[in-house]
Structure formats: structure tokens, C-alpha cells
Amino acid sequence: MEPKRNAGSYTPAVADKRKDRLALEHGVSGKYTSAPPGVSATYSSALAFDSSITKAEIPGSMDQEEVVKDVTLDANSPISYFYLTFDTPLPCPNAGRPQSDRGDLPACPDLSPYTDPMKWPLARKGVMLVICCLATCFTAYAAGTYSECADPIAAEFNTTRESALVGVTTFCIGFAVAPMILAPFSEINGRYPVFAIAGVIFVVFQAVCGVVTNLAGMLIARFFKGVGGSVFSTMVGGVIADMYEKEDRNMPMALFSGFVLVGTGLGPLVAAVMVHHWGGEGQKWKWVFWHQVIIDFILIVAVVVFFKESRGSVLLSRKTRALNKWYQQLEEKGVFGVYFPGSNGDSDILSRPSAPTSESKPKGRPGLRRIRWTVKEDEQQVSLVTMITVSLFRPFVLLFTEPIVFFFSLWVSFAWGILYLTFGSVPLVFQRQYNFNMEQSGLVFIAMIVGSIFATILGIYQEGMLKHPKWQSISDSSGTDSSEDSSEEVHTGTGFWAFVRRKFPAQSPESRLYFTCFTSVLLPAGLYLFGFASQPSIHWMVPTFAIFLATMGIFYVYLATFNYLADVYRAYASSALAAQSFCRNVISGVFPLVTGLLIRNLGEDAMGGLLGGVATVLTLVPWALVLFGSRIRARSPFAIGLEQK
Question: Which residue intervals of 444-540 are DSSP H helices?
Fold first, then answer.
């Protein structure tokens, strides 16, 4: 069996643990964080190639002629391989060595497109975030508009309203299934091609919805529309994780979650106005689809032009190919090898040649190496078929073996089902109880939009509260205790912050849930209020306010699920999030089909009581994890394995 390769030494023959450790420290870990004296930018970035490099510019300030005497490289010299990271300083090519009449040497390729996304300028991250949030918003917008067209669609295709609403179900099924195949594809080939191709599919089948002539065609078009739109919802979290560290991720995730709910409320609002004014005028109601085609086409053009690849391993792979191609071109011109500085008397600790050689290098001197770069993720990568197989099965393994994943999936699925329930319940309830027309009932969705915006602002503010200096004072970023802060707490005599830090540590994964324990109560409160206040004797503003409260509760459930599962499962976060996404979208597709039955058979008050009761029980999920989360994680083989890495 091939030995495990470490971060600095690619060659399988290297088994000496001491040298493996030194390779990690001196090969790629960033010891040479800046260029050694004499080589400056040429060494650190290799963005320019200067064929006039002199002996004074060799790392370690050794005489170049000494090095030339020690080592002679040619096409028969063995090649050493190294793992490349974003922090790896690039060694200087053997530019000054007169090996042959080379003529013009090829310039180093432009490596700026392969910058670490974590270190992108804030402006670039901002543009990416805006594109992702807008795409998410209009994907949710497409989900919300359809239910308002159910009656015209039923009349057009000579069917029932319930049959027409199956279009919501097929849309959600596309949303649930597609990411399990597209997510691993994006990890291998990058986010950009997946986003671009999925965007085209989304726009094309949006247009198909406006021209189909039968219900079957509409249901199929809605399915593929869900397939295309799923990328802009379920994979945006991955793009955010590509660009932001854990500590900085809450704000973009809160914006992403807020735009989902804003789009979900905006869709039925606009569609209700259109259907009310144009529903009886021939085919004008189909502008519900056609205006989305125009908007989505502009959006996809923006994605194609301004969206940049954010998958770090993909960018590194492209960087290695560019550098290796450049080394090959240099060797074709007779330039062999790059300079590595010596390290504490052993210049061979960086790697061993991939083939046996009788050459021995002097100790403690800079040495020439004929090298190639590789990326660890590429070697660990399995085939696309295997990745898709894992992507299809691992989420369900986590769902049925991990209590955290199971109960979070149940919680967020119910909350998302309530969101889709409003598509049918709001028009029906307000028409039954307050004699609202289609347009007036659509305007009630403004409460959902306002609730989403308000919840987003509070969600961002809550993360700032976790960074309160007294909450953070005991544990610094490295997790070490501060005795000074402890003594200061004793002298203050309050004891409040000491209690908070001890019982609710800010560095714990459960810190994502502290505020959710209280804010998630807004969901059952909104459901109770909506059910019992929806009657003619009570002003229509009261159930409208209930929608505002429930929307805020849904937001906090959604945000907590994404943040907590990502923090706890890390390497398995994609599978954990895929499990909840699948459950969430399948259940969401079912709820609109039973909305009318619930309201007509149970009435608004009983329906509100039933759904509010279920939501109340599910609010125990964050409390259980805040109180017993460490114990639950200690029994999870996935979480334990990650903590031991």
C-alpha cells in the first residue's frame, strides 16, 4: 500500500517521519513567507521572469558557480513533486545558469486569477455575494409566483386547481434531487460552470412554462426549472464558505437567508397583482412567466460575466497546471530546475527524487531541483461516479444515524413547509374571512418581505453580540485561557459574564443557537395568532402581523440550520446540508397540496392550533443542543473523527 503523502513531500518513498515533519514546516507551510534576501518578488510570486538573475540573487547568497559545480540538471534528472498551497512561496527558476543558447525565454504565466478566494478584496467578495443573493432571490421568486396562477392554469388546461398545484411539487422535487448530483460535480470542476449551465436551464424552462399547451408539459417544465434553480439556493452556501472564514460567515449567510424569504414573499405579491388585472384577458396572465424570463436572462448574463470561480482546490489545480506547463516550456529552452534554500545542514529534506540517483547534495547549501507541483485534493479525489454515489447515500446515512442532522432536518423542513403553505393559505383565508380579492390578498405578502428584512438585520446584529469583549475575554482566538480576564471578573464582583462564559461559551458550535432558542419561538407564536385571529371580528392587520412573526421565526430556523451543521460537520457539511435540503424541499412540495383541505376541513383556528403545536415541540431542538450538544457530539462518529483530525 502506498504510504500517505504529507503536505510537503509528494514522493511515496519518503517514509522518515522526521523528514516528513520538516517538509511540512519548510516545504509548503509558509516559513518563507516573504522572499529571501536578493530575490524579493521573483521568488515570492514568480509573476515575472528575469533572465539576468545573477549569483547574488540566489537564495542564501551563495556563489552561483558553487551550485553549478555541485549539481548539473538535464532532461534525464529526476523530478521531485511538491504539494502546492495558496501560501507556498514559489522558488526562483534557474535563470542565470548558461546551459545552452536558449533565445527568448517564456514569461511566467499570470497567476493573479488563482488567488485564494479567502483573500479576495472585499469589493470582489461583495460583487459575488450580490450576484448570489439576487440569484437566490429570483429563484425563490419563481417558486412563489406559480401558486397564484393555479386557477388560470387549471382553466387553461381544463383541470382542477389541486392538479395545477402539482407544479409546485415537481419544482420542489427538482430542487431536492439536483444538488446531490451537481454539488460533487462543482467540487471537481468548479462552481462557475455549474452556475452558468444551471442558469441557462433555469431561463430556458422558465420560457417553456409560458408556451406549454398541456398540464404534463407544465409539470415537466417546472421540474427542470427546479433543477436549474436549485443551484442558486442550495449551493450558494458553498460559495460563501469558499470566500469567508467561519468567524466572518454569519453576515453573508444572514443576507443569503434574508433574500430567500424576500423572494418568496415578492413572488406571490407580484403574481397576484398580474393575475387580478389580466386573469380574464386571454393569455395576459402568462406574463407571470414571461417577465421572469426577462429578469432571469439579465441575471444569468451577470453570472456569466461577473461570477468568478471560488472553489479553492479547483483554482489551485489550475495554478499547478499553469506552473508545470511553464517549467516544461523552460526546459524545452534548456532551463532546468529551481532554487531551494538549504535548511539547517540538510538540503534534501524537502523531497527525495522520484527515481534513485547517485548524486549527493552538499549540506546546508541552496540546491537546484527539477520539480513539478500537484494539489493534495486532486490526489485524494475519487471519480465523479463515486462522488455522486457518496453524495446520494451519505446524506441519508447522516439523516438516519445522526440525531443532530435528523432533528434539524425535521425542524427546518416543517418551517419551510409552513413557508410554502402561505402561498395557498393567505389568499384562501383572506378571501374567506375578509372578502379580499386576489390583488388585496397578494399585498398581504408585504408582511413576509418586511419580516425577512427585519430578521436579517437582527441576525447580523446577533453575531456582533457574540463578539462582545467580555463574552470573548476568557478564550482568545487560539482557545487559551486568560488569567488576567479571570481575575478582573473576580474583582468586578458581578459574576454575570463569568456565568455566561462558563455556561454559554462563545467559541462553542452551539453559540450559533443561543439566540435561536428565543427567536425560533416566533414561528409557533405567528401560527397560533394567524389561526385564532383570522375571523371577521378581528382586524385583518392582526393575522397579517402573525405572518410577519412567523416569517421571522422561519428565518432564524433556516439560518441556524445552515450555520450549525456547517460548523459541526465541516468536511461532511455538504452531506449534512444535502440531507436537510432534500427533506425540506420534498415536504415543501407536499404542503401546498394539503392547504385547502386543512383550512376547509379544520377551519383556520384548528389549523393554527395544530401547526402551532407542532412548531412549539420543535423549538425544543435548539434548547436540547445548547444544553446537551457536547454530549451528543461526543457520541457522533462523524463529529469525533473531525475533532481528532
Answer: 446-466, 469-472, 483-492, 496-503, 516-519, 522-533
